[in-house]
Amino acid sequence: MPFIGSKVSIKTTDAQKEELKKKLGQAIAILPGKSERWLMVELEDEKKLYFGGDDSAPTAYVTVSVLGNPDSSSFAKMTAELTKIYKELLGISPERLYVKYDTTHDWGWNGGNF
Fold first, then answer.
1. Which of 2, 6, 14, 91 has the smallest set of CB atoms within 10 Å of its CB?
2. Residue 67, φ and ψ in degrees, nearest 5
3. CA nearest to 109, candidates 37, 43, 61
4. Does residue 14 sit in helix, strand or coil?
5. What is the value of pTM for the model shown?
6. Helix, strand, or coil here: 29?
7. What are the boundaries of each domain within the chain?
8. 27-40: pLDDT as tens digits
């Protein structure tokens, strides 16, 4: 039941969005017990993002929400992979990307909760 939300300051093409979705689907498997089968992805581009008061370079804000509580080392591996993906696909420097992790023990789906 993972969710990845992505906000970037640049315009992205449909091809870039498709590749980003694909790479995020592969990356989610870094977290124990998570897979693309249950992953929901939100991709937003052309957002007004300031980093340190500056909006002159491409910037990204990524949220990763998961059911359960993976260990910190899994999150560290995920951050490394996410920064690599955004650098390679969109040219966003790792120092202009924040990743926020949310964990929960309650997640609703299909009229019920896990």
1. 14
2. -80, 135
3. 37
4. helix
5. 0.94
6. helix
7. 3-106
8. 999 999 999 999 99
